[in-house]
Amino acid sequence: MDFLSRTQVVTAFGAVALALFVLDLVRRRRLSEEYSLLWVACTVTIAALGFSTPLLLWLTRLLGMTGAASVAFAAGLAFVMAMLLFLSVKMSRLSRESLLLARELALLRFELEKDHRLGSDGEGA
């Protein structure tokens, strides 16, 4: 029977705790479902690596790493990199949208002020 190492147990329970925390954030509407799916997928992957010794050892051999804990760390690092890229793409899109909205608002204000000035000039004549 395979026994889990202390590192695996800590990793697995840490991932489960993080998944529960993410779900609580979604429940309280502090995190959108869109982002929560990424976090839950990551924590499920890390928990699977933590609880499944054969899977962890197979991945360790497949990736040519020397320690099983390195695989869990590499998976976490890969997730962080993917999340940073995802958030950078989102932030870039939101920046473009914000700029477009600011331009539209400026044009609307200009039109409103122009109409207001024309209306004021017409009343005095």
TrEMBL record:
One Pfam family recorded for the sequence: DUF2304
InterPro entries associated with the record: DUF2304
Protein's UniProt name: DUF2304 domain-containing protein
Organism lineage string: Bacteria, Candidatus Eiseniibacteriota
Listed transmembrane segments: 6-26, 38-59, 65-87
Entry keywords, A to Z: Membrane, Transmembrane, Transmembrane helix
